[in-house]
């Protein structure tokens, strides 16, 4: 059986591709989102209990190989996978979509983390589209001189930015939709993680077209694990390792 550590569109695509060629697959989700988009095939939900718990799970379930297709900012589960897979003697592949890169007309400020993003906000804008997700919003709680449109999938827990509106929504987003949202709220700054991929890229297209600044949080560093950027390449790897 192939275990996919999931929670991304690429993870769902890989699960569907494996099911289509009759390779047994289990997708694992953290359980963060109340109503997640479920992949096809077997699904398990919830943490494993750290690297030790994951190593035990891999051995008990006789997993042939693991594909870590979690989000580029999901640092802990990737670190756990990098420890647990060798411990259990199971091959591990990282499937990670490429990050975004600047194009002509972009006015991006790259920062190391959410704290640095929050510190840069007052210099760059007053009405902020904040799309970094439900976790870590506390970093923006002390920013007094800006208003935030906080967009996330599920209601966020406090502390939150003092001046804000929360918009519950889930991608994919279109250029037309993002343009309308940015106009309606008078947005003058976009804050995002470097998530990469097409599904949430439209805000960057609209920022470019309107000359808006964007604060982009760099991806965290990753364990040294063999990595593929495409679902097709991960599929070939998984087929080669399926028992
Ligand atoms: P994280 O900080 O890396 O993980 C925290 C803990 O959650 C892990 O130690 C693990 O618990 C559990 N966990 C995370 N992903 C899991 C999975 N796929 N299956 C089983 N347990 C998992 O993760 P996160 O940043 O909170 O993200 C959680 C999930 O949301 C990930 O699966 C990720 O792909 C998805 N996601 C994250 C982001 C983001 O910006 N961080 C964005 C979109 C989607 P145990 O130690 O108990 O095993």
* Number of helical segments with 4 or more residues: 7
- Runs in which pLDDT lies below 50 for 5 or more consecutive residues are none
The residue fraction in helices comes out at: 25-40%
The arrangement of helices and strands along the chain is EHEEHEHEEHEEEHEHEEH
Provide the gyration radius in Å: 19 Å
**Mean pLDDT, as a whole number?**
97
Mind describing the biggest β-sheet? 6 strands, parallel
**For the terminal residues, how far apart are their CA atoms?**
7 Å
The best one-word shape is: elongated
Biggest β-sheet: strands ordered side by side in the sheet: 3-2-1-4-5-12
Strand content: 15-25%
Count all strands and give the number.
Answer: 12
Give me the secondary-structure topology.
Layout (H helix, E strand, L loop, with lengths): L1 E4 L3 H12 L4 E5 L12 E4 L4 H11 L4 E4 L6 H14 L3 E4 L11 E5 L2 H11 L2 E4 L16 E6 L11 E5 L6 H10 L4 E5 L8 H9 L2 E5 L9 E2 L2 H11 L2
Parallel strand pairs: 1-2, 1-4, 2-3, 4-5, 5-12, 6-11, 7-8, 7-10, 8-9, 10-11
Helix pairs in contact: 1-7, 2-3, 5-6
The structure holds NADP nicotinamide-adenine-dinucleotide phosphate.
Briefly summarize what is shown:
The chain has 243 residues and is α/β, with parallel strands linked by helices.
What does this structure look like?
The chain is of the alpha/beta class and 243 residues long. 32% of the residues lie in helices and 22% in strands. The chain has seven helices and twelve strands. It has helices spanning 9-20, 50-60, 75-88, 114-124, 175-184, 202-210, 231-241, and strands spanning 2-5, 25-29, 42-45, 65-68, 92-95, 107-111, 127-130, 147-152, 164-168, 189-193, 213-217, 227-228. The strands form two sheets. Strands 3-2-1-4-5-12 form a six-stranded parallel sheet, sandwiched between helices. A six-stranded parallel sheet has the order 6-11-10-7-8-9, with helices on both faces. Helix 2 (50-60) crosses helix 3 and helix 5 crosses helix 6. Bound molecules: NADP nicotinamide-adenine-dinucleotide phosphate (NAP). Residues 5-8, 28-30, 32, 47-50, 53-54, 70-71, 73-77, 80, 133, 193 line the site of NADP nicotinamide-adenine-dinucleotide phosphate.
């Amino acid at each position: 059986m192939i275990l996919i550590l999931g929670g991304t569109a690429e993870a769902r695509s890989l699960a569907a591709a494996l099911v289509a060629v009759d390779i047994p697959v289990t997708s694992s989700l953290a359980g963060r989102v109340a109503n997640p988009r479920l992949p096809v095939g077997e699904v398990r939900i919830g943490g494993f209990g750290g690297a030790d718990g994951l190593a035990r799970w891999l051995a008990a379930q006789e997993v042939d190989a693991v594909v870590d297709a979690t989000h580029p900012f999901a640092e802990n589960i990737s670190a756990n996978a990098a420890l647990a897979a060798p411990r259990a003697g199971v091959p591990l592949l990282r499937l990670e979509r490429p990050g975004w890169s600047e194009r002509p007309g972009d006015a991006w400020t790259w920062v190391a983390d959410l704290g640095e993003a929050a510190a840069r906000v007052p210099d760059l804008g007053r009405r902020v589209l904040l799309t970094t997700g439900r976790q870590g919003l506390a970093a923006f709680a002390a920013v007094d001189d800006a208003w935030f449109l906080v967009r996330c999938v599920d209601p966020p827990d406090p502390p939150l930015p003092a001046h804000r509106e929360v918009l519950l929504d889930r991608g994919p987003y279109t250029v037309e939709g993002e343009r309308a949202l940015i106009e309606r709220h008078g947005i003058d700054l976009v804050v995002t993680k470097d998530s990469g991929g097409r599904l949430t890229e439209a805000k960057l297209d609209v920022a470019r077209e309107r000359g808006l600044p964007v604060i982009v949080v760099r991806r965290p560093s990753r364990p040294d694990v063999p990595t593929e950027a495409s679902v097709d390449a991960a599929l070939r790897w998984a087929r080669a390792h399926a028992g």
